[in-house]
Amino acid sequence: MKETKMLETKALTIGDLAARTGLSVSAIRFYEDKGLVEPFRSSGGQRRFLRSDIRRLSFVLIAQKLGLSIGEIQRQLARLPHGRTPTQSDWTRIGKAMRGVIDTRIAELERTRDRLDGCIGCGCLSLKKCALYNPEDRAGLKGPGPQLVLGD
Questions:
Q1: What does pTM read for this prediction?
Q2: Is residue 128 within 8 Å of residue 137, measured between CB atoms?
Q3: What sign for the dihedral angle of Cα 53, 58, 63, 65?
Q4: Element (H, E) at 47
Q5: What distances in angstroms separate CA 20 from CA 26, 46, 84, 112, one per listed residue?
Q6: Model confidence over 3-28: pLDDT tens digits?
Q7: Neighbours of 45 (CB within 10 A)
Q8: Is 40 helix (H, G, I), strand (E, B) or coil?
């Protein structure tokens, strides 16, 4: 009981967390629903967040700017300990695990940039009619979407 009271006094309200992260209260609730933060309830039944949730939500914002999906972010945050503030080594472990994901994303972006530049450079502005990249719409046989840009 004494430990719970001490935890409550150091904890943040959802409004405090919103102010510290720049997120709206509804966004924090969304991330809570996705399991990215796990508040506890005060003796009065109100959500309370640990100070370490500021870092968790900051990570979420950064990861989303990098183009990671909520699912990818969930998998990474699942690596963090529950019930204690993550340490530098916990975050380092996640950083190392994410390097492959980020490197893949960078390669996709570079490939997209380079192929879009090439397409626009040919002058036809149409992948459907383009004799250089997609004669007779061969890419359409591979499936829907921009196969030449995003496909293997």
A1: 0.67
A2: yes
A3: positive
A4: strand 47-48
A5: 15, 18, 20, 36
A6: 445 455 689 999 999 999 999 999 99
A7: 6
A8: strand
